[in-house]
Please model this.
Amino acid sequence: MKLKFIAQDLDFSAIVAQSGLNSPSVISIRVTDAKPDIITRILLNVLPFIESFIAEGALVSIDESGYRVRKIPVED
Model:
Protein backbone atom coordinates (compact mmCIF):
# COMPACT_ATOMS: atom_id res chain seq x y z
CA MET A 1 0.00 0.00 0.00
CA LYS A 2 1.31 3.43 -0.93
CA LEU A 3 1.54 6.14 1.65
CA LYS A 4 -0.94 8.98 1.10
CA PHE A 5 -1.06 12.57 2.35
CA ILE A 6 -3.87 15.07 2.75
CA ALA A 7 -2.66 18.63 3.12
CA GLN A 8 -3.50 22.26 2.56
CA ASP A 9 0.15 23.07 1.91
CA LEU A 10 0.97 22.90 -1.81
CA ASP A 11 4.63 22.15 -1.08
CA PHE A 12 3.87 18.44 -0.63
CA SER A 13 2.46 18.16 -4.17
CA ALA A 14 5.39 20.12 -5.60
CA ILE A 15 7.95 17.90 -3.88
CA VAL A 16 6.29 14.69 -5.11
CA ALA A 17 5.89 16.09 -8.64
CA GLN A 18 9.57 17.00 -8.83
CA SER A 19 10.75 13.72 -7.31
CA GLY A 20 9.94 11.60 -10.36
CA LEU A 21 8.55 8.89 -8.08
CA ASN A 22 5.12 7.26 -8.32
CA SER A 23 4.34 7.66 -4.63
CA PRO A 24 3.18 8.94 -2.23
CA SER A 25 -0.20 10.14 -3.43
CA VAL A 26 -1.13 13.62 -2.23
CA ILE A 27 -4.55 15.20 -1.86
CA SER A 28 -4.34 19.00 -1.65
CA ILE A 29 -7.36 20.68 -0.12
CA ARG A 30 -7.78 24.25 -1.38
CA VAL A 31 -10.90 25.67 0.25
CA THR A 32 -11.66 28.98 1.91
CA ASP A 33 -13.38 27.41 4.93
CA ALA A 34 -11.24 24.56 6.29
CA LYS A 35 -13.40 23.56 9.23
CA PRO A 36 -13.09 19.82 9.92
CA ASP A 37 -16.76 19.11 9.18
CA ILE A 38 -16.52 20.87 5.80
CA ILE A 39 -13.29 19.04 4.85
CA THR A 40 -14.87 15.73 5.90
CA ARG A 41 -17.95 16.37 3.77
CA ILE A 42 -15.84 17.33 0.74
CA LEU A 43 -13.63 14.24 1.09
CA LEU A 44 -16.59 11.89 1.52
CA ASN A 45 -18.12 13.29 -1.67
CA VAL A 46 -14.93 13.14 -3.75
CA LEU A 47 -13.13 10.00 -2.51
CA PRO A 48 -15.28 7.51 -4.45
CA PHE A 49 -14.27 9.25 -7.68
CA ILE A 50 -10.54 9.52 -6.96
CA GLU A 51 -9.89 6.31 -5.01
CA SER A 52 -8.43 4.40 -7.96
CA PHE A 53 -6.14 7.30 -8.89
CA ILE A 54 -4.88 7.53 -5.31
CA ALA A 55 -4.20 3.80 -5.24
CA GLU A 56 -2.11 4.05 -8.43
CA GLY A 57 -0.27 7.23 -7.47
CA ALA A 58 -1.64 10.72 -8.07
CA LEU A 59 -1.66 14.34 -7.08
CA VAL A 60 -5.24 15.44 -6.46
CA SER A 61 -6.26 19.05 -5.94
CA ILE A 62 -9.71 19.63 -4.46
CA ASP A 63 -11.44 22.99 -4.24
CA GLU A 64 -15.00 24.26 -3.95
CA SER A 65 -15.65 23.78 -7.67
CA GLY A 66 -14.38 20.19 -8.01
CA TYR A 67 -11.13 18.28 -8.30
CA ARG A 68 -8.17 17.75 -10.64
CA VAL A 69 -6.00 14.64 -10.90
CA ARG A 70 -2.44 14.32 -12.15
CA LYS A 71 -0.99 10.83 -12.24
CA ILE A 72 2.52 10.45 -10.90
CA PRO A 73 5.27 10.36 -11.87
CA VAL A 74 4.48 13.72 -13.48
CA GLU A 75 5.76 13.94 -17.01
CA ASP A 76 6.39 17.31 -18.68
In short: The first strand starts at residue 4 and ends at 7. The helical segments are 11-19, 36-56.
